[in-house]
Amino acid sequence: MHRRAFLTTTTTGIAVGLAGCVGSSREQPDYDIGMSSSDFLPQEDFEPRVGERVVWRNTGSRSHTVTAYQSRIPEAATYFASGGFENEGAAREAWTSSTGGAIESGQTFEHTFEVPGTYNYFCIPHEPAGMVGKLRVTE
């Protein structure tokens, strides 16, 4: 066998043999909802169960927040916002005065939902661009 033919055959065989290995070694992401430049991903409704922890990760390059619309979560639910603010007004004020509650690229925010129902949330700096999300927490 000529050297060139041998190398071509061997290289092709190795590439084909490894093709399945590369694709199957991907790990599951360590978050539930990603954040691109101006969207929460996935954009469709996400449905965690009561008692389940939800993790948001900033997968983009811009600073974001995860901020609940206080009037659009179940009445008995605990308010949530990155930065640990007690209400929507405090979260908005903190962002305006010092970018409080910012989740930087690669960082996460998590919250455990204890009450079933629909939770609407948004990113303060990108709310005008439509960066809003919704969770439906089920029993």
Q: Would you kindly provide a written description of the structure presented here, covering whatever features stand out?
A:
- With 139 residues, this protein is an alpha+beta fold.
- The protein has a single domain (33-137), classed as Cupredoxins -  blue copper proteins (Immunoglobulin-like).
- Helices cover 24% and strands 22% of the residues.
- It has helices at 3-24, 88-98, and strands at residues 33-35, 40-41, 53-58, 67-68, 108-112, 117-122, 132-137.
- The protein is globular and about 35 Å long.
- The N and C termini lie far apart (67 Å).
- Residues 1-25 have low confidence and may be disordered.
Give the gist of this structure.
This protein is α+β, with helices and mostly antiparallel strands. The protein contains two helices and seven strands, in the order H-E-E-E-E-H-E-E-E. Helix content is 24%, strand content 22%.
Average pLDDT metric: 86
Strand order of the largest sheet: 2-1-3-5
How large a portion of the residues is in β-strands, by DSSP E?
Answer: 15-25%
Spans of 5+ residues with little confidence (pLDDT < 50)?
Answer: 1-25
Give the proportion of residues in helices. 10-25%
Distance between the termini: 67 Å
Key phrases:
globular, single chain, Immunoglobulin-like, three-stranded antiparallel beta sheet, 139 residues, alpha+beta, disordered N terminus, four-stranded mixed beta sheet
